[in-house]
Design goal:
- This protein is α/β, with parallel strands linked by helices and 263 residues long.
- The protein has a single domain, classed as HUPs (Rossmann fold, 3-Layer(aba) Sandwich).
- 27% of the residues lie in helices and 23% in strands.
- The protein has seven helices and eleven strands.
- Helix 3 packs across helix 4.
């Protein structure tokens, strides 16, 4: 099975204090520590596990600048077979639809059975996977937390839905799936693995290579414009309930009643 996993280089929130810049147009990115998007890491691990079970190859791909190559190599050190970097000044400032258009232009040049994305990236929109599937006219499932390969034409997919329930679907290949965290436990990447892929060739494709019109990407092709960044004002904080278990439960019920949560 040929699997493509879309990954993204994002600020590591565990290592950084995120600060909005003076103009309110972005966060301060200078001196930030970056890593692979958490959801994408689960997607790569799932792709590797599928390959180990049924055979095939795993390719990781990212849209970004030259620095984004580091996350591609990191996922190759994890076990992906090859990587692709989609890099062009024309891509800068693309919205979700633009990113999906860039990825689609690369995907149609290959032959993939399965495309995985993280459920969401650093902007939290969770839209690229669905848009990509629509552009490819492939089946799509979001918030996937289980994948079972039936044969070379179908897979069984479990997804998380409201109320903590599980939905199971049979989906035709090729398809696009957005992976939820918790589907697996991503493996540790050691220094030896990183050194092994340090000199691996990673193709870099731009707009011309993808035969992609600059009008479809970047600010010109973006239908969504970011207007402002701001840090919300802190609220009053949590109210701590004291007493034994029954006393705490009684107080909680009274609070819920006063707020209209229960009758």
């Amino acid at each position: 099975m040929e699997i493509l996993v879309c990954v993204k280089r994002v600020p590591d929130t565990a290592e950084n204090e995120i600060i909005v810049n003076r103009d309110g147009t972005d966060i301060e990115r200078e001196d930030l520590v970056f890593s692979v998007n958490e959801w994408d890491n689960y997607a790569v691990e799932e792709a590797i596990q599928i390959k180990d079970k049924v055979g095939g190859n795993v390719t990781v791909i990212t849209v970004g600048n030259d620095d984004a190559e580091e996350v591609v190599r990191r996922e190759m050190a994890m076990g992906a077979d090859r990587g692709i970097l989609l890099c062009d000044e024309a891509f800068e400032g693309s919205d979700g639809k633009g990113i999906a258009s860039i990825l689609k232009a690369e995907i149609v040049k290959g032959k993939y059975d399965l495309v995985l994305t993280g459920a969401q990236a650093d902007d939290g929109a969770g839209q690229v996977g669905g848009m990509l599937a629509a552009m490819l006219d492939w089946p799509f499932a979001s918030l996937v937390n289980k994948i079972e390969v039936i044969d070379d034409k179908k897979i069984l997919v479990g997804r998380e839905i409201a109320g903590g329930n599980q939905e199971i679907n049979e989906i035709d290949l090729p398809c696009v799936l957005s992976i939820q965290t918790g589907i697996n436990e991503p493996r540790y990447v050691g220094i030896r693995g990183i050194r092994k892929v340090a000199s691996a060739d990673i193709p870099v494709h731009g707009a011309n290579d993808l035969e992609l019109s600059p009008e479809l990407v970047g600010p010109a092709g973006s239908l969504v414009k970011r207007l402002d960044f701001f840090v919300p004002e802190p609220g009053e904080g949590a109210k701590m309930l004291e007493g034994n278990t029954q006393e705490i439960l009684d107080k909680l019920v009274e609070i819920l009643k006063s707020k209209g949560g229960i009758k």
